[in-house]
Amino acid sequence: MNITDVGHLTSDADVGEDKMLKGARRENKTVWQVADFYTKAFQNDIKKMNLLPANKLCKATDHIKEQIGMIKTLEKKGYTYFKGGNVYFDTSKVSDYGKLANLDLDADSQARVERDPNKKNPHDFVLWFTKSKFQEQEMKWDSPFGRGYPGWHIECSAMATKYLGKQFDIHCGGIDHIPVHHTNEIAQSEAANGKKPWVKYWLHGEFLVLQGEKMAKSGENFITLSTLIEKGIDPLDYRYFCLGTHYRKPLMFSYEALEGAKAARKRLNEKFLELKKTGTASPAKQKRHIQIFADDINDDLNTSKALALLWEVLKEESLTDKDKYSLLLQFDKILGLNLSKLKKEKTKVPAEVKKLAEQRLQARHNKDWKKADELREKIKELGYVIGDTKEGYEITRA
User: How many domains does the chain have?
Assistant: First the structure.
Protein backbone atom coordinates (compact mmCIF):
# COMPACT_ATOMS: atom_id res chain seq x y z
CA MET A 1 0.00 0.00 0.00
CA ASN A 2 1.39 3.37 -1.05
CA ILE A 3 1.65 6.47 1.09
CA THR A 4 2.00 9.20 -1.54
CA ASP A 5 3.55 11.88 0.65
CA VAL A 6 5.18 14.05 -2.03
CA GLY A 7 4.34 15.50 -5.44
CA HIS A 8 0.60 15.08 -5.05
CA LEU A 9 -1.42 17.78 -6.81
CA THR A 10 -5.13 18.51 -6.45
CA SER A 11 -5.43 17.38 -10.08
CA ASP A 12 -4.32 13.98 -11.37
CA ALA A 13 -2.61 15.87 -14.20
CA ASP A 14 0.30 18.29 -13.71
CA VAL A 15 -1.96 21.18 -12.78
CA GLY A 16 -3.68 22.45 -9.65
CA GLU A 17 -2.32 23.11 -6.15
CA ASP A 18 0.20 20.95 -4.32
CA LYS A 19 -1.90 19.20 -1.63
CA MET A 20 0.99 18.95 0.81
CA LEU A 21 1.79 22.68 0.61
CA LYS A 22 -1.88 23.56 0.81
CA GLY A 23 -2.26 21.44 3.96
CA ALA A 24 0.93 22.83 5.51
CA ARG A 25 -0.26 26.41 5.06
CA ARG A 26 -3.73 25.58 6.38
CA GLU A 27 -2.42 23.83 9.50
CA ASN A 28 0.69 25.95 10.04
CA LYS A 29 2.96 22.90 9.86
CA THR A 30 5.82 21.71 7.68
CA VAL A 31 4.94 19.35 4.84
CA TRP A 32 6.84 16.61 6.69
CA GLN A 33 4.66 17.14 9.77
CA VAL A 34 1.51 17.08 7.63
CA ALA A 35 2.57 13.81 5.98
CA ASP A 36 3.39 12.18 9.33
CA PHE A 37 0.15 13.36 10.98
CA TYR A 38 -2.16 12.06 8.24
CA THR A 39 -0.23 8.82 7.79
CA LYS A 40 -0.72 8.01 11.49
CA ALA A 41 -4.39 9.12 11.37
CA PHE A 42 -4.95 6.85 8.36
CA GLN A 43 -3.31 3.88 10.11
CA ASN A 44 -5.43 4.45 13.23
CA ASP A 45 -8.61 4.53 11.14
CA ILE A 46 -7.58 1.28 9.43
CA LYS A 47 -7.34 -0.40 12.85
CA LYS A 48 -10.70 0.99 13.99
CA MET A 49 -12.42 -0.38 10.87
CA ASN A 50 -10.81 -3.80 11.39
CA LEU A 51 -9.00 -3.70 8.04
CA LEU A 52 -6.07 -6.07 7.72
CA PRO A 53 -2.90 -3.96 7.38
CA ALA A 54 -0.83 -4.19 4.22
CA ASN A 55 2.22 -6.46 4.40
CA LYS A 56 4.22 -3.46 3.19
CA LEU A 57 3.20 0.15 3.76
CA CYS A 58 5.66 2.14 1.67
CA LYS A 59 6.20 5.89 1.56
CA ALA A 60 7.15 7.71 -1.62
CA THR A 61 9.71 9.78 0.33
CA ASP A 62 11.52 6.56 1.31
CA HIS A 63 11.81 5.43 -2.33
CA ILE A 64 13.33 8.38 -4.17
CA LYS A 65 16.26 6.20 -5.32
CA GLU A 66 13.88 3.72 -6.97
CA GLN A 67 11.97 6.52 -8.68
CA ILE A 68 15.15 8.08 -10.05
CA GLY A 69 16.23 4.62 -11.21
CA MET A 70 13.00 4.09 -13.16
CA ILE A 71 13.25 7.54 -14.76
CA LYS A 72 16.84 6.74 -15.83
CA THR A 73 15.60 3.47 -17.39
CA LEU A 74 12.90 5.36 -19.30
CA GLU A 75 15.50 7.90 -20.39
CA LYS A 76 17.78 5.15 -21.76
CA LYS A 77 14.85 3.63 -23.68
CA GLY A 78 13.99 6.95 -25.29
CA TYR A 79 10.68 7.68 -23.53
CA THR A 80 11.63 11.00 -21.93
CA TYR A 81 12.57 14.56 -22.80
CA PHE A 82 13.95 17.42 -20.72
CA LYS A 83 12.43 20.84 -21.14
CA GLY A 84 11.93 23.91 -18.98
CA GLY A 85 13.83 22.25 -16.13
CA ASN A 86 11.54 19.21 -15.89
CA VAL A 87 11.72 15.63 -17.14
CA TYR A 88 8.63 14.62 -19.13
CA PHE A 89 7.30 11.24 -20.28
CA ASP A 90 6.62 11.26 -24.03
CA THR A 91 3.24 9.57 -24.48
CA SER A 92 3.56 9.66 -28.28
CA LYS A 93 6.13 6.84 -27.98
CA VAL A 94 3.45 4.50 -26.54
CA SER A 95 1.22 3.07 -29.28
CA ASP A 96 -1.54 1.91 -26.93
CA TYR A 97 -1.51 4.86 -24.52
CA GLY A 98 -4.91 5.29 -22.87
CA LYS A 99 -6.02 1.66 -23.31
CA LEU A 100 -7.30 1.28 -19.76
CA ALA A 101 -9.69 4.23 -20.14
CA ASN A 102 -10.39 3.67 -23.86
CA LEU A 103 -9.33 7.28 -24.42
CA ASP A 104 -10.11 9.01 -27.70
CA LEU A 105 -6.80 10.87 -27.71
CA ASP A 106 -7.71 13.35 -30.44
CA ALA A 107 -11.00 14.38 -28.84
CA ASP A 108 -9.51 14.34 -25.36
CA SER A 109 -6.55 16.47 -26.42
CA GLN A 110 -8.86 19.15 -27.82
CA ALA A 111 -10.94 19.12 -24.64
CA ARG A 112 -7.91 19.65 -22.39
CA VAL A 113 -6.95 23.12 -21.31
CA GLU A 114 -3.18 23.09 -21.80
CA ARG A 115 -1.29 24.97 -19.11
CA ASP A 116 2.27 23.69 -19.62
CA PRO A 117 3.91 25.07 -22.78
CA ASN A 118 6.87 22.71 -22.29
CA LYS A 119 4.81 19.62 -23.15
CA LYS A 120 5.13 18.20 -26.65
CA ASN A 121 1.73 16.50 -26.32
CA PRO A 122 -1.23 17.36 -24.05
CA HIS A 123 -1.10 13.92 -22.39
CA ASP A 124 2.62 14.02 -21.55
CA PHE A 125 3.36 14.17 -17.84
CA VAL A 126 6.17 15.17 -15.50
CA LEU A 127 8.44 12.47 -14.10
CA TRP A 128 10.72 14.86 -12.20
CA PHE A 129 10.31 18.54 -11.31
CA THR A 130 13.31 20.84 -10.93
CA LYS A 131 11.43 24.01 -11.86
CA SER A 132 7.76 24.56 -11.14
CA LYS A 133 5.40 27.02 -9.53
CA PHE A 134 6.06 25.20 -6.23
CA GLN A 135 9.62 26.42 -5.72
CA GLU A 136 8.92 26.71 -1.96
CA GLN A 137 8.45 22.93 -1.82
CA GLU A 138 10.51 21.66 1.14
CA MET A 139 10.74 18.09 -0.13
CA LYS A 140 13.61 18.12 -2.63
CA TRP A 141 16.36 15.64 -3.51
CA ASP A 142 19.49 15.62 -5.64
CA SER A 143 19.19 13.69 -8.90
CA PRO A 144 20.94 13.36 -12.28
CA PHE A 145 18.22 15.68 -13.63
CA GLY A 146 18.80 18.40 -11.02
CA ARG A 147 17.64 19.02 -7.46
CA GLY A 148 13.88 18.63 -7.27
CA TYR A 149 11.12 16.15 -6.56
CA PRO A 150 9.18 13.42 -8.41
CA GLY A 151 5.84 13.68 -10.16
CA TRP A 152 3.02 11.73 -8.59
CA HIS A 153 2.66 8.93 -11.14
CA ILE A 154 6.25 7.66 -10.97
CA GLU A 155 5.99 6.97 -7.21
CA CYS A 156 3.41 4.22 -7.56
CA SER A 157 5.14 2.46 -10.45
CA ALA A 158 8.55 2.46 -8.75
CA MET A 159 7.27 1.13 -5.42
CA ALA A 160 4.94 -1.47 -6.94
CA THR A 161 7.72 -2.78 -9.19
CA LYS A 162 10.14 -3.02 -6.26
CA TYR A 163 7.81 -5.04 -4.03
CA LEU A 164 5.53 -6.88 -6.50
CA GLY A 165 7.75 -7.31 -9.55
CA LYS A 166 7.48 -6.28 -13.19
CA GLN A 167 4.01 -7.84 -13.43
CA PHE A 168 1.44 -8.48 -10.70
CA ASP A 169 -2.19 -9.51 -10.42
CA ILE A 170 -4.31 -6.80 -8.80
CA HIS A 171 -4.14 -3.01 -8.58
CA CYS A 172 -6.83 -1.06 -6.69
CA GLY A 173 -7.91 2.58 -6.69
CA GLY A 174 -10.79 4.95 -7.25
CA ILE A 175 -12.53 5.32 -10.61
CA ASP A 176 -11.22 8.89 -10.84
CA HIS A 177 -7.71 7.46 -11.31
CA ILE A 178 -8.58 5.62 -14.54
CA PRO A 179 -8.22 8.35 -17.21
CA VAL A 180 -4.99 9.96 -15.97
CA HIS A 181 -3.12 8.47 -13.00
CA HIS A 182 -3.56 4.77 -13.74
CA THR A 183 -3.29 5.39 -17.46
CA ASN A 184 0.09 7.05 -16.85
CA GLU A 185 1.20 4.35 -14.43
CA ILE A 186 0.60 1.73 -17.12
CA ALA A 187 2.42 3.74 -19.79
CA GLN A 188 5.59 4.33 -17.78
CA SER A 189 5.66 0.88 -16.13
CA GLU A 190 5.26 -1.08 -19.36
CA ALA A 191 7.76 1.20 -21.09
CA ALA A 192 10.33 0.60 -18.32
CA ASN A 193 9.64 -3.06 -17.53
CA GLY A 194 8.73 -4.49 -20.93
CA LYS A 195 5.70 -4.69 -23.17
CA LYS A 196 3.79 -7.36 -21.23
CA PRO A 197 0.76 -6.13 -19.24
CA TRP A 198 1.94 -4.56 -15.99
CA VAL A 199 -1.28 -5.41 -14.08
CA LYS A 200 -3.68 -8.27 -14.85
CA TYR A 201 -6.77 -6.98 -13.03
CA TRP A 202 -7.85 -3.47 -12.04
CA LEU A 203 -10.34 -3.06 -9.18
CA HIS A 204 -11.72 0.47 -9.22
CA GLY A 205 -13.98 1.64 -6.41
CA GLU A 206 -16.90 3.96 -7.12
CA PHE A 207 -17.49 7.16 -5.17
CA LEU A 208 -19.06 7.71 -1.79
CA VAL A 209 -21.76 10.23 -2.67
CA LEU A 210 -22.94 12.95 -0.28
CA GLN A 211 -25.83 15.25 -1.20
CA GLY A 212 -25.50 14.48 -4.89
CA GLU A 213 -21.74 15.04 -5.07
CA LYS A 214 -18.77 12.70 -4.63
CA MET A 215 -17.08 13.01 -1.26
CA ALA A 216 -13.65 14.54 -1.98
CA LYS A 217 -10.68 15.15 0.30
CA SER A 218 -10.16 18.54 -1.30
CA GLY A 219 -13.81 19.58 -0.97
CA GLU A 220 -15.98 20.94 1.83
CA ASN A 221 -18.10 17.78 2.02
CA PHE A 222 -15.41 15.55 3.48
CA ILE A 223 -16.40 13.55 6.58
CA THR A 224 -13.83 11.71 8.67
CA LEU A 225 -14.24 8.53 10.68
CA SER A 226 -13.75 10.61 13.84
CA THR A 227 -16.85 12.64 12.89
CA LEU A 228 -18.91 9.45 12.71
CA ILE A 229 -17.60 8.23 16.06
CA GLU A 230 -18.56 11.56 17.65
CA LYS A 231 -22.10 11.00 16.34
CA GLY A 232 -22.31 7.55 17.94
CA ILE A 233 -21.52 5.50 14.82
CA ASP A 234 -19.09 2.68 15.52
CA PRO A 235 -16.43 2.19 12.80
CA LEU A 236 -17.78 -1.35 12.33
CA ASP A 237 -21.24 0.13 11.70
CA TYR A 238 -19.66 2.09 8.86
CA ARG A 239 -17.91 -1.08 7.65
CA TYR A 240 -21.27 -2.89 7.60
CA PHE A 241 -22.75 0.05 5.68
CA CYS A 242 -20.01 -0.23 3.03
CA LEU A 243 -20.37 -4.02 2.72
CA GLY A 244 -24.01 -3.58 1.74
CA THR A 245 -23.18 -2.04 -1.65
CA HIS A 246 -20.92 -3.48 -4.35
CA TYR A 247 -17.68 -1.53 -4.59
CA ARG A 248 -18.26 -0.74 -8.29
CA LYS A 249 -21.53 1.03 -7.48
CA PRO A 250 -21.86 4.54 -6.00
CA LEU A 251 -22.60 4.47 -2.28
CA MET A 252 -25.12 7.10 -1.19
CA PHE A 253 -24.07 8.52 2.18
CA SER A 254 -26.62 9.66 4.74
CA TYR A 255 -26.83 9.50 8.51
CA GLU A 256 -30.23 7.79 8.16
CA ALA A 257 -28.59 5.00 6.15
CA LEU A 258 -25.80 4.73 8.72
CA GLU A 259 -28.34 4.45 11.55
CA GLY A 260 -29.96 1.62 9.57
CA ALA A 261 -26.61 -0.15 9.27
CA LYS A 262 -25.99 0.39 12.99
CA ALA A 263 -29.36 -1.18 13.88
CA ALA A 264 -28.75 -4.12 11.51
CA ARG A 265 -25.31 -4.85 12.99
CA LYS A 266 -26.76 -4.66 16.50
CA ARG A 267 -29.39 -7.26 15.53
CA LEU A 268 -26.70 -9.43 13.98
CA ASN A 269 -24.59 -9.29 17.13
CA GLU A 270 -27.59 -10.17 19.28
CA LYS A 271 -28.56 -13.10 17.04
CA PHE A 272 -24.99 -14.39 17.06
CA LEU A 273 -24.77 -14.26 20.87
CA GLU A 274 -28.07 -16.14 21.15
CA LEU A 275 -26.72 -19.12 19.17
CA LYS A 276 -26.04 -22.17 21.32
CA LYS A 277 -22.74 -23.86 20.51
CA THR A 278 -24.10 -27.26 21.49
CA GLY A 279 -25.91 -29.89 19.46
CA THR A 280 -25.09 -31.86 16.33
CA ALA A 281 -23.38 -30.10 13.44
CA SER A 282 -23.77 -31.07 9.78
CA PRO A 283 -20.49 -30.59 7.87
CA ALA A 284 -22.29 -31.32 4.57
CA LYS A 285 -24.80 -28.50 5.09
CA GLN A 286 -22.03 -26.15 6.20
CA LYS A 287 -19.97 -27.03 3.13
CA ARG A 288 -22.84 -26.10 0.82
CA HIS A 289 -23.25 -22.67 2.41
CA ILE A 290 -19.50 -22.06 2.49
CA GLN A 291 -19.39 -22.77 -1.24
CA ILE A 292 -22.22 -20.29 -1.90
CA PHE A 293 -20.40 -17.67 0.20
CA ALA A 294 -17.13 -18.29 -1.68
CA ASP A 295 -18.95 -17.99 -5.01
CA ASP A 296 -20.42 -14.63 -3.95
CA ILE A 297 -17.05 -13.26 -2.81
CA ASN A 298 -15.29 -14.59 -5.92
CA ASP A 299 -17.92 -12.87 -8.07
CA ASP A 300 -15.93 -9.61 -8.12
CA LEU A 301 -16.11 -9.24 -4.32
CA ASN A 302 -19.90 -9.22 -4.14
CA THR A 303 -20.06 -8.40 -0.43
CA SER A 304 -23.73 -7.38 -0.56
CA LYS A 305 -24.72 -10.90 -1.70
CA ALA A 306 -22.41 -12.45 0.92
CA LEU A 307 -24.01 -10.31 3.63
CA ALA A 308 -27.49 -11.36 2.49
CA LEU A 309 -26.41 -15.02 2.71
CA LEU A 310 -25.32 -14.47 6.32
CA TRP A 311 -28.88 -13.43 7.22
CA GLU A 312 -30.33 -16.37 5.27
CA VAL A 313 -28.14 -18.74 7.31
CA LEU A 314 -29.51 -17.28 10.56
CA LYS A 315 -33.07 -17.99 9.35
CA GLU A 316 -32.33 -21.45 7.90
CA GLU A 317 -34.35 -23.96 9.92
CA SER A 318 -32.44 -27.01 8.67
CA LEU A 319 -29.25 -25.72 10.31
CA THR A 320 -28.51 -26.24 13.99
CA ASP A 321 -27.26 -23.42 16.18
CA LYS A 322 -23.84 -25.04 16.10
CA ASP A 323 -23.88 -24.98 12.28
CA LYS A 324 -24.93 -21.35 12.22
CA TYR A 325 -22.30 -20.35 14.77
CA SER A 326 -19.55 -22.07 12.78
CA LEU A 327 -20.70 -20.63 9.44
CA LEU A 328 -20.92 -17.06 10.73
CA LEU A 329 -17.40 -17.26 12.15
CA GLN A 330 -16.09 -18.50 8.80
CA PHE A 331 -17.97 -15.82 6.86
CA ASP A 332 -16.63 -13.18 9.24
CA LYS A 333 -13.04 -13.99 8.31
CA ILE A 334 -13.90 -12.08 5.13
CA LEU A 335 -16.60 -9.67 6.32
CA GLY A 336 -14.52 -8.58 9.31
CA LEU A 337 -17.31 -7.60 11.71
CA ASN A 338 -15.44 -9.03 14.73
CA LEU A 339 -18.12 -11.55 15.68
CA SER A 340 -15.57 -13.79 17.42
CA LYS A 341 -14.80 -11.00 19.91
CA LEU A 342 -18.41 -10.42 20.95
CA LYS A 343 -19.26 -11.04 24.58
CA LYS A 344 -22.59 -11.01 26.29
CA GLU A 345 -22.93 -7.92 28.42
CA LYS A 346 -23.68 -8.68 32.02
CA THR A 347 -26.99 -7.06 32.78
CA LYS A 348 -27.29 -5.24 36.11
CA VAL A 349 -30.56 -6.61 37.39
CA PRO A 350 -32.54 -4.65 40.02
CA ALA A 351 -33.35 -6.46 43.26
CA GLU A 352 -37.09 -6.32 42.48
CA VAL A 353 -36.57 -8.16 39.17
CA LYS A 354 -34.30 -10.76 40.82
CA LYS A 355 -36.97 -11.40 43.44
CA LEU A 356 -39.63 -11.96 40.77
CA ALA A 357 -37.21 -14.26 38.87
CA GLU A 358 -36.66 -16.40 41.98
CA GLN A 359 -40.41 -16.59 42.59
CA ARG A 360 -40.90 -17.67 38.96
CA LEU A 361 -38.20 -20.34 39.30
CA GLN A 362 -39.98 -21.71 42.39
CA ALA A 363 -43.30 -21.66 40.52
CA ARG A 364 -41.74 -23.70 37.70
CA HIS A 365 -40.39 -26.21 40.21
CA ASN A 366 -43.92 -26.48 41.58
CA LYS A 367 -45.23 -26.82 37.99
CA ASP A 368 -47.42 -23.78 38.55
CA TRP A 369 -47.17 -22.67 34.92
CA LYS A 370 -49.88 -20.02 35.19
CA LYS A 371 -48.06 -18.21 37.99
CA ALA A 372 -44.74 -18.59 36.13
CA ASP A 373 -46.25 -16.90 33.07
CA GLU A 374 -47.69 -14.08 35.17
CA LEU A 375 -44.29 -13.46 36.77
CA ARG A 376 -42.63 -13.47 33.33
CA GLU A 377 -45.02 -10.69 32.24
CA LYS A 378 -44.31 -8.65 35.37
CA ILE A 379 -40.58 -8.93 34.66
CA LYS A 380 -41.22 -7.85 31.05
CA GLU A 381 -43.21 -4.81 32.23
CA LEU A 382 -40.15 -3.74 34.21
CA GLY A 383 -38.05 -3.78 31.02
CA TYR A 384 -36.37 -7.18 31.28
CA VAL A 385 -36.62 -10.55 29.56
CA ILE A 386 -36.14 -13.84 31.38
CA GLY A 387 -34.97 -16.99 29.62
CA ASP A 388 -34.75 -20.50 31.00
CA THR A 389 -31.39 -22.29 31.20
CA LYS A 390 -30.15 -25.60 32.60
CA GLU A 391 -28.77 -23.71 35.58
CA GLY A 392 -32.03 -21.82 36.19
CA TYR A 393 -32.62 -18.57 34.31
CA GLU A 394 -30.97 -15.71 32.45
CA ILE A 395 -32.11 -12.07 32.53
CA THR A 396 -31.42 -9.51 29.82
CA ARG A 397 -32.77 -6.08 29.00
CA ALA A 398 -35.85 -6.04 26.80
Answer: 3
